[in-house]
Design goal:
By secondary structure, the protein is an alpha/beta fold. The protein has an 8-stranded antiparallel β-sheet with strand order 3-2-4-1-10-9-11-15, covered by helices on one side. Strands 5-6-7-8-12-13-14 form a 7-stranded antiparallel β-sheet. The chain has a 5-stranded parallel β-sheet with strand order 17-16-18-19-20, with helices on both faces. The protein binds fructose -6-phosphate. Fructose -6-phosphate (F6R) binds near residues 302, 348, 399, 488 and 605. Fructose -6-phosphate binds next to helix 9 and helix 16.
Length: about 600
């Protein structure tokens, strides 16, 4: 998603810092980028190519200055063209960058046009820049506040103006923004990673905050009604890392992150000594016994983690569990139950739909909230009473991999905790499950060793346009996740079905041209799954099966089998999904796709 970097300094040219920041935000996905500085006038460079090309352009045009703003854009309003790239200028007076969407921009645009403004882009951002100019009467902070009182929508912005060229005003509503506090310089960014090495002192702005940055000072104000009141926000010491950006021996971040899973799961488990509510926060011991239902809310891959865990919550903890797609839940009329534990799951913790759904659940009177998240400082974590931070480390590949398996790890811990509180977990079971959990990193390593066998299959997938994924029970969401991975990065149309549903429709698709990927653990549904596979075989379908070794399944003419190293019982989904990640990765590789930055997708979806 779009990225913001801004800096004002008294001691150096900040253009290299801005460009470095943009490079670190590249992984989030973008289709254009730009930098604007004050250098005896508003100057800018914009590009629809990569940041590296923008850097060349900047050198060529000798862009430099002690104050500037920079942006990577992921198009929402207006195509990815240079004229739509940020920073946007309002005449020669105001420069502005913006993440998010201004919902009422059309009416403001018409109003400004009536006053004679001629727009040079199709964006809502340029409208905001002109609105700030329209509100400007000698005080930039006041102009931004007045402009923000007029707009509806989500934004993270950074603005400067020619009349006061060392001052930057930033604001946040629904789009992440941090201030970095330096020595005689001040920074802002949509992610601390952009400022790694520049400072370790960060202030996480809250929704409704506006801040004014000068090289030696900052002031923060919060939105109260239509007024802005001065507010203190904590300066936190955060070691922002950029070394996650190093690829090491891997070709892509996605491959690196797939192979990091044993470590990520081990790290996630490291702080857990025993099954106790305390691992989810101080209030958990008080909240959990009052819970008689779970409502899980998430998007995309995180939604599939939620779906998987529903099977655990109901089977092991005996708690009814509903799973909702955030963008649907937030807009539908539902029946609230205040004894519900509302669990939001998110890698980034900034996904707009999930965050809004969490707030919606709270507004409905459900205040027992828990977020499972990979970013400790994210908005979702701050909005929830309880949380569990997965330790996947920064995930850069747009297609989520290690975030998913660490989410499953966290959700299994939550299952055990609730089962224990409900008196459904004996000490013996607890020991057994914990031993199995602690062995998962090793088991995942054995699955990763199957990579050469999986590569052997991918040449047969690469020329296909459609694929079917089958699973049953708790492995049905894993089939869904496998199909999502394949379509995201290989652009092969892939659909997943619970295998028992085949004969109710999708069987009509099956012929020799469509690969049917099947997740086949040795569980109580295996015999039924075998019958479903026969249905495919009888229609000359080509089956690609990941089977537990103790199923006894072996390859024959139209059935290709890769055997999983071990049967892992309740935790089997964590192992099976790894094979599907590798299958998607290597298929996309053969097709020559940009695996880490698939078309049309962004890493963190902070707009609706
Ligand atoms: C798929 C993927 C997306 C995200 C979804 C939610 O590989 O990455 O489907 O899972 O956008 O993102 P988070 O988990 O950050 O809320």
């Amino acid at each position: 998603m779009c990225g913001i970097v801004a800096a004002t300094s008294r001691k150096r040219d900040i253009v290299p810092l801005l460009v470095q920041g943009l490079k670190r935000l590249e992984y989030r996905g973008y289709d254009s980028c730009g930098v604007a500085v004050w250098d005896n006038g508003l100057k800018r460079a914009r590009s629809v190519a990569r940041v590296a090309e923008l850097e060349e352009q900047i050198q060529h045009e000798h862009l430099h200055g002690e104050m500037g703003i920079a942006h990577t854009r992921w198009a929402t309003h207006g195509e990815p063209l240079v004229c739509n790239a940020h920073p946007h200028f309002a005449g020669d007076e105001i420069a502005l960058i913006h993440n998010g969407i201004i919902e009422n921009y059309e009416e403001i645009r018409a109003e400004l046009q009536a006053k004679g403004v001629e727009f040079s882009s199709q964006t809502d951002t340029e409208v905001l820049a002109y609105l700030v100019r329209d509100c400007y009467h000698g005080d930039l902070l006041k102009a931004v506040e007045d402009a923000l009182n007029r707009v509806r929508g989500a934004y993270g912005i950074a603005v400067f103006c020619k009349q006061d060229p060392s001052r930057i005003v930033v604001a946040r509503q629904g789009s992440p923004l941090v201030i970095g506090v330096g020595e005689n310089e001040m920074f802002a960014a949509s992610d601390t990673m952009a400022l790694a090495g520049e400072t370790n002192n960060f202030i996480y702005l809250e929704d409704g905050d506006v801040a004014e940055l000068l090289p030696e000072s900052y002031k923060i104000f919060k939105h109260v009604g239509t007024e802005f009141e001065a507010v203190e926000r904590e300066v936190r010491e955060v070691q922002a890392f950029s070394n996650a950006v190093e690829l090491g021996p891997y070709r892509h971040y996605m491959q690196k992150e797939i192979f990091e899973q044993p470590r990520a799961i081990a790290d996630t488990l490291e702080a857990v000594r025993e099954i106790t509510p305390a691992i989810f926060g101080e209030e958990a011991a008080e909240i959990f016994p009052e819970v008689d239902r779970i409502l899980m809310i998430a998007c995309g891959t995180s939604y599939y983690a939620a779906m998987t865990s529903k099977y655990w919550f109901e089977a092991i903890a005996g708690i009814p569990c509903d799973v909702e797609i955030a963008s649907e839940y937030r807009y539908r009329k539902s029946v609230p139950n205040p004894r519900t534990l509302v669990v939001t799951i998110s890698q980034s913790g900034e996904t707009a739909d999930t965050l809004a759904a969490l707030k919606h659940a709270r507004e409905l009177g459900m205040d027992k909230t828990l977020t499972v998240c990979n970013v400790a400082t994210s908005a979702m974590v701050r909005e929830s009473r309880l949380h569990f931070i997965t330790r996947a480390g920064v995930e850069i590949g747009v297609a989520s991999t290690k975030a998913f398996t660490t989410q499953l790890t966290a959700l299994f811990l939550l299952t055990l905790t609730l089962a224990k509180i409900n008196g459904r977990l004996t000490a013996e079971d607890e020991n057994l499950y914990m031993t199995q959990l602690r062995h998962v990193p090793k088991a995942v390593s054995s699955v990763l060793a199957l990579e050469p066998l999986i590569i052997g299959w991918t040449s047969r997938f690469a020329d296909k346009e459609h694929a079917l994924f089958l699973g049953r029970g708790i492995h049905y969401p894993i089939a869904l996740e496998g199909a999502l991975k394949l379509k995201e990065i290989s652009y092969i149309h892939a659909e997943a079905y619970p295998a028992g549903e085949l004969k109710h429709g999708p069987l009509a698709l099956v012929d020799e041209s469509i690969p049917v990927v099947t997740v086949a653990p040795n569980d109580q549904l295996f015999e039924k799954l075998k019958s479903n596979m026969k249905e495919v075989e009888a229609r000359r379908g080509e089956l690609y099966v990941f089977a537990d070794s103790d199923t006894g399944l072996s390859s024959s003419e139209h059935i290709h089998v890769i055997r999983m190293p071990e049967n892992y019982g309740a935790l089997s989904p964590i192992l099976h999904v790894v094979t599907l990640q590798l299958l998607a990765y290597h298929t996309a590789l053969i097709r020559g796709n940009d695996v880490d930055k698939p078309r049309n997708l962004a890493k963190s979806v902070t707009v609706e």
